[in-house]
Amino acid sequence: MTFPNSSSSTAVPYRSTARITPGGAWLGETPAAWMTPVTSPNAVAVSTSACTDSREDTSTIAVLTSTRPVQLVTVGDVPLDGCKTGGKASERGGAVAVGLTNWSGNLAYRADSLHYPTSVVEVQELVARLPRVKALGTRHSFNTIADSPGGALISLSELAPEVTIDAEAMTVSVTGGTRYGVLAAELQSRGYALHNTGSLPHISVAGATATGTHGSGDRNGILSTAVSAVELVKADGSLVSVDRSNPDLKALAVGLGAFGVITRLVLDIQPTYLVRQDVYRNAPWDTVLEAFDAVMASAYSVSLIGDFGSPEIHELWQKARVESVRDADEQPEPVPESLYGGTWYDDAEAPPDHTLNVRAGIAGPWSERLPHFRLDAPPSAGGDELQTEYFVERRHAVNALGTLRSLGDRISPHLHATEIRTAAADDLWLSPAYERDSLCIGFTWRKHPTEVMALLPDIEAALAAYDPRPHWGKLFTIGDEDLGRRFPRLPEFLELTTTYDPTGKFSKAGDPPTAG
Ligand SMILES: Cc1cc2nc3c(=O)[nH]c(=O)nc-3n(C[C@H](O)[C@H](O)[C@H](O)COP(=O)(O)OP(=O)(O)OC[C@H]3O[C@@H](n4cnc5c(N)ncnc54)[C@H](O)[C@@H]3O)c2cc1C
């Protein structure tokens, strides 16, 4: 098995925007400049997944990127009647994956084919038949972790979510390809909640948990800590269930896609709760670092959004659980105007098309406050970005942040923003928070792949004293030796993959793992 670090990066030179309408398929360099229908045989097939996963996230627009000029074509009698209403992927020629990129567009998958099974039995048949295969989530990872060079990819986006709640066990069972936002809305509508979410609701449950995706909160474990069971298709095509009574679950819950295709997950749930978000702007780094533990403990989930090259943290976000309905009133309870040198900010006047969930102290369901971004809008920098994240042990937090501030003048020119969060220690083998209460230091980079990839080794060297563990779905250059030291259960993890996948069908990458 090789790991998805990021020793090189491939720019994707061509990008086109496609509009798919009942009248046909159209290409243009920008959404405003539609061109005539495309009929070239040198073509890219568009699937439902490509449409709904696009940065625009509308039903009729897809962004396609490729290492060659993109051409769009219908396959056979593919019904181009809009992304969300097309027939089954197989009918649409959905096994063609030429030119498919990850969400950000910083890498083109090198798999030869992409399959959209519509049943678990189909998943089993595909996995049993294909010599090399990997499950693909919503393509939000920034490195090659979801790729299967020369092999096949399997997306579960055609399997219905099938959300089943067990109110006695306080668990929910859901298909692996379901997006967190879809699951969260369903849970909320039925009076239940998850303990936490990542910043974006667009990602799939299986894909997010596979890389150790997390939110924030001193006492909140990463999302995979809620996994109480998985159902997966092993390399031989057999379907197995692994729950907490089986020690393997500690490896499978952050499994990097290396054990098989997870068709269903069972997650812990709790009664629904309300969250209010308060934002403080321009708190000085020095003031915040002096009171760092208190700052990060000041709410259920805390994020610091800023820049290491600035003397101030742009925004301190507090997401506090609100227990009483009265507090959820449209008139929020007053909070201090100033905190840690920052000033309370009312975003009520933000433009209506902004992509963030409501803040301004107005409480709302956990499902609309814990994710930073709304499901109906493109998250973050809209894909014009790269991301990196390191977990360091919490007791090193202030020193590690100080180290990064000393590199501020090198980091800032390439940074959209850093996000600092916390995660509680857990016992999942490849969790970046394995047996360590952790500080999560996230970088949302400008799309400067060459400069970012050149900078990462220096950042990693500067943080080396704190044994940083990388986020598995983001860009990093830490080598296998250091990974082995920093993830002490890695040898057992690798050993266990061979019992689920003796021939390395899911994990034999063939090439060194890269950013693109
Ligand atoms: C804008 C943005 C914001 C982000 N915010 C956060 C954040 O707040 N916190 C955080 O921790 N991360 C964050 N991430 C990273 C993101 O959560 C991870 O990269 C996540 O893994 C993406 O999920 P996905 O569904 O796109 O999976 P993919 O990227 O498609 O795949 C990731 C891995 O999951 C495996 N996989 C997918 N489906 C299955 C399956 N059915 N069975 C088995 N394995 C499977 C793949 O093989 C691969 O190894 C962010 C990313 C973006 C683009």
Number of domains: 3
Biggest sheet record: 10 strands, antiparallel
Straight-line distance between termini = 18 Å
**What is the helix fraction of residues, given as a range?**
10-25%
- What's the total helix number? 12
Radius of gyration: 22 Å
Shape: globular
Q: What name does the CATH topology of the largest domain carry?
A: Alpha-Beta Plaits
Structural class: alpha+beta
Question: Which characteristics define this entry?
Answer:
12 helices; 3 domains; 10-stranded antiparallel β-sheet; Uridine Diphospho-n-acetylenolpyruvylglucosamine Reductase, domain 3; globular; Uridine Diphospho-n-acetylenolpyruvylglucosamine Reductase, domain 2; Alpha-Beta Plaits; binds flavin-adenine dinucleotide; 5-stranded antiparallel β-sheet; 516 residues
Give a structural overview:
By secondary structure, the protein is an alpha+beta fold. It folds into 3 domains: 1-158, Uridine Diphospho-n-acetylenolpyruvylglucosamine Reductase, domain 2; 164-272 and 493-500, Uridine Diphospho-n-acetylenolpyruvylglucosamine Reductase, domain 3, CATH 3.30.465.10; 274-481, Alpha-Beta Plaits (2-Layer Sandwich). It has helices spanning 48-52, 120-129, 180-189, 205-210, 249-252, 285-290, 292-296, 397-406, 408-411, 449-463, 480-486, 490-500; strands spanning 14-21, 24-28, 61-66, 113-115, 133-136, 152-155, 164-166, 171-175, 192-193, 227-233, 239-243, 261-268, 270-271, 274-284, 301-306, 312-322, 338-339, 342-345, 364-365, 386-393, 415-423, 438-445, 469-470. The strands form 5 sheets. Strands 14, 15, 16, 17, 18, 19, 20, 21, 22 and 23 form a 10-stranded antiparallel sheet that branches. The protein has a 5-stranded antiparallel sheet with strand order 7-8-12-10-11. Strands 2-1-3 form a 3-stranded antiparallel sheet. A hairpin with a 5-residue loop joins strand 10 and strand 11 (239-243). The longest helix is centred in the last third of the chain and has 15 residues, at 449-463. Mean pLDDT is 81; it is low at 5-98 and 509-513. Bound molecules: flavin-adenine dinucleotide. Residues 103, 134-141, 145-146, 156, 176, 198-200, 203-204, 206-208, 210-211, 213-214, 256-257, 261-262, 379-380, 387, 471, 473 line the site of flavin-adenine dinucleotide.
